From TrEMBL:
<dbReference type="InterPro" id="IPR029058">
    <property type="entry name" value="AB_hydrolase_fold"/>
</dbReference>
<keyword id="KW-0378">Hydrolase</keyword>
<keyword id="KW-0472">Membrane</keyword>
<comment type="similarity">
    <text>Belongs to the AB hydrolase superfamily. Epoxide hydrolase family.</text>
</comment>
<dbReference type="GO" id="GO:0016787">
    <property type="term" value="F:hydrolase activity"/>
</dbReference>
<feature type="domain" description="AB hydrolase-1">
    <location>
        <begin position="25"/>
        <end position="145"/>
    </location>
</feature>
<dbReference type="Pfam" id="PF00561">
    <property type="entry name" value="Abhydrolase_1"/>
</dbReference>
<keyword id="KW-1133">Transmembrane helix</keyword>
<protein>
    <recommendedName>
        <fullName>AB hydrolase-1 domain-containing protein</fullName>
    </recommendedName>
</protein>
<feature type="transmembrane region" description="Helical">
    <location>
        <begin position="149"/>
        <end position="166"/>
    </location>
</feature>
<dbReference type="InterPro" id="IPR000073">
    <property type="entry name" value="AB_hydrolase_1"/>
</dbReference>
<keyword id="KW-0812">Transmembrane</keyword>
<dbReference type="InterPro" id="IPR000639">
    <property type="entry name" value="Epox_hydrolase-like"/>
</dbReference>
Amino acid sequence: MEGIEHRMVSVNGINMHIAEKGEGPVVLFIHGFPELWYSWRHQIVALAARGYRAVAPDLRGYGDTDAPPSITSYSVFHIVGDLIALLNILGQDQVFVVGHDWGAIIAWYLCLFRPDRVKALVNLSVSFMPRNPAGKTVQRLRAAFGDNYYICRFQVLLFLLLPFQFSNGDLFYYRCLPLSFILPLFVVIFSPSGPLTGGIPI
């Protein structure tokens, strides 16, 4: 799309796919769930045209980036480690960071763990939520937003069938979504690697 370049880089023990365009200060885009670098395609082109180098990786477990089999490989420590290794490969001491949804959570932790590597942060949709191992996240979200909140919906048994549905091309669960044009892309990307374990950071 409009000169966006793609390549694989070796970071933190995995191969990571990145999409990039432009020259100048780096803007690192961090996608949410269930998204890919593709969510940022318009922003990549727009910022590159304004003198920035826009970089959007597929996080571990997404798209063409490796998906380690163990669920313990998807902590915020691992994912932030991937991004720091990516910044090192890009030769950047500091970058502008833009996060959305689950990517915003990762962006907050990137700032918390390595503030020296972040020039500025712009987050969409998610405010900072400190980690609280004693807290019950889903119960707290259900109390605040009700049973129809998307994360609460992800807890239902039907969601466990998604890998089966994706592998058979059954998009019934998602027919009501406004972005139905992009679903075939997700079917292709998520179905070959098995379960969606890598999709949500823990």
